[in-house]
Known about the structure:
By secondary structure, the chain is mainly alpha-helical. It has 3 domains: 3-58; 72-158, Orthogonal Bundle (DNA polymerase, domain 1), CATH 1.10.150; 184-222, no CATH class. Helices cover 51% and strands 7% of the residues. The protein has a 3-stranded antiparallel β-sheet with strand order 1-2-3, covered by helices on one side. Strand 2 and strand 3 (33-39) form a beta hairpin. Helix 5 runs antiparallel to helix 6. The chain is elongated, with a radius of gyration of 29 Å. The chain starts with a strand and ends in an 11-residue tail after the last helix. The mean pLDDT is 84.
Amino acid sequence: MGTFFKDCVHPKSKWPKCPHTYKIQFRDAADKQRVESGFGTDTPAIVRLSEVYNAKRSVPGGAGRAARVAKYGAMRFEEYAAEWRSGQRHLEVSSLRHLDSLLEHHVLPALGSRRMDSFDHKVVDGFIKTMERNGAGLATQANASDKLKSIPLDAHRLGLSETNPLDGVKPPQYDPARAVIPSPAQLAQIRTAGDDTFLLIADLMSGCGMRNGEATAANVRNLVAGDV
C-alpha cells in the first residue's frame, strides 16, 4: 500500500515526539513512485495512504490502465499520431491525403515532440492561438484543430488522462461565405475571360465538377492513359 516515514536524524522510536513532519511513499496508477510530505502525525499519513490504495482499487481495470499509461504516456505525439493514423482505414484516399497534409504542415511541427501524458486543454488551446498568430486561415485553423483534438481524445479514451483534455477549449469559429453558383450566361462570359491557364481551370471546374484546388493541381503527369 505504501510507507510513511521521516527522513530526519531521529530514530523511529523518537518519531512521535520529534518536530519533523512525516512523509509517505507509494506507487500511483501508472506505477510511478510518488512522495508526499507535510503530515504532522502518523495518523493523517496513514489515512492518506489508505485513500490512495482505495482509489487504485476502485478503478476498473486498474492494472490494465497502468500498463497503458506506462506504454503510451511517455510516447511522443508524432509516434502516437502515426499509430492513430494507421487506424483511420475508414477514410477515403482524398480524406487521408488531407489529414496527412494537416499533420505534416501544422500539427506535428508544433507538437510532434510533446509527450502524450502532458496534454491538457491548455496545450490544445495554445496550439489554436499559435495558428491565429501565424495568420493561418480560419478554415485551416478549424480543420487542423479538429484533427489534433481527435488524437488526445483517443488517448483519453485509452486512459492516459483522467479528465478530457478538450474540456474548456473553444474551437476556431469558421463561418464560410455563402457559395454562389454562376448562371449559364455568367459561365459563358467566364469561359472567354483570362489567359489559357484560367480558361483551363474554369473548364475543369465547370465541366468536371472540380473544386478550385483540384483544378489548379491538374497536370499532364497525372494522366493515367493516352486518352484519359
